[in-house]
Give the backbone structure.
Amino acid sequence: MTVDTRVSVAERVIAVLADVAEDNVVRTDPDIPLFEQDVLDSLRTVDLILALTKEFGVDISPAELDRSLWATPRHIVAFMEAKVGA
Amino acid sequence: MTPYASFFYFGLLLYPLAIGLVLAWFGKLTPGILLGLTLGMVLVQYSRLQAEGPNAFDKVWAIAGFALYQLAIASAFLHVRQRLQSKPAFWFAIILSLLPLALVKAAPTNAGVTLIEFVGVSYVTFRSLDVIIGIEDRLITALSSRQYVLFLLFFPAISSGPIDRFRRFAGDLSQSRTRQSLLADVDSGIQHIMRGFAYKFLVAALIKSHWLEPAESAHGIWSTISYMYAYTLYLFFDFAGYSAFAIGVGSMLGIRTPENFRLPFLARNINDFWNRWHISLSTWFRDHVFMRFMLAATRGKWFRSREVASVAAFYVTFLLMGLWHGVALRYVVYGLYHATLLSIHNGFARWRRKRGRGEPGLGWQVASTALTFQLVCFGLLIFSGRLG
């Protein structure tokens, strides 16, 4: 049961991320450095925050994330899993 | 006394560093002791024993009063926020916290205002605002007065930053260092301090005496152009040198402040530039102004499109950043100039993405970097006031 929930959180996060970034690389390469490779920037981070807030019903504040915390798709999945799970 | 500007200051620095490092070696460098070291350094740094007439400790009183004032606001707001969310209370706390800085910027010559101003007030105010915003977002749910005052007045960075974030700083405080990581911090500290010496006392000093000052006193278009490059390079080496000192000293005391500059003149475009120049300030504005504005604007549908909202966000953010430097036309124009460049760049980047353009070739990247450098230099020429 726990494994299923984890997978679906991760899948949902990646789906949202791919949609916001308009780039499928987040699916194919979960370790791509998002900001360095310009997959995400400040504006798309705002969109991502809004989309994740809507998807999971949790509050995320810009002050909460520094770019090392959301560096790769894997990082963002871990961040959201902690937020949703906690 | 200006920090990191004289050998006397470096001599003075040896005291807190020696005490701090010895205590750290035995695992006894507590936040309380760090606070004591900070208060001691602030006392020495801001007292003017050679001053005639006015009280030699008036700046020390100003800082003490300021710190207690900010602590009162933060504590009161935390008390409120623990019970309910109130936007008016949040904005009230922000306005109260900003008030001393706003007065200092807007009315610097007013007799009452000169009582409260002190070197570093701009940087310290932004630290206190960071705490209020953290409380509002419920990222800070408890506030130790000792940690707060230490964060606010942390002596290596009090005069010109970097502007640290409370949660990051508190995280460093709560980590007890092994001897191995202590040595790594000392190593990093020494490297940073050496960099500081090279940048500030060697490169910046030479630029100043051999390039900047001659260009400053000359007139005409060519000397203005020369001044533009001299000023840009001088500002970088001087400020990055200072930042290296601040980061190095902090690192030895267990506070691993992030870098404030990262090869800014290699920026590929103006977006990239702001991720490399005065990073602590630009990320502060990005997280606490730009992104919050965009979130509110998008949720509240203030503008007809996201693109228009982002342009508005750039102008609001950079106008405020300009004013943060001072209430003067050149700072306002500097802010608006960068807001315009960023709006244009982001529009262009959006257009390129829609057209499905891939990575630009090396030639384009070099040209883009060179253009960015020119634009940055021109912006700093505006900033310098030479065009006034």
Notes: The mean pLDDT of chain B is 92.
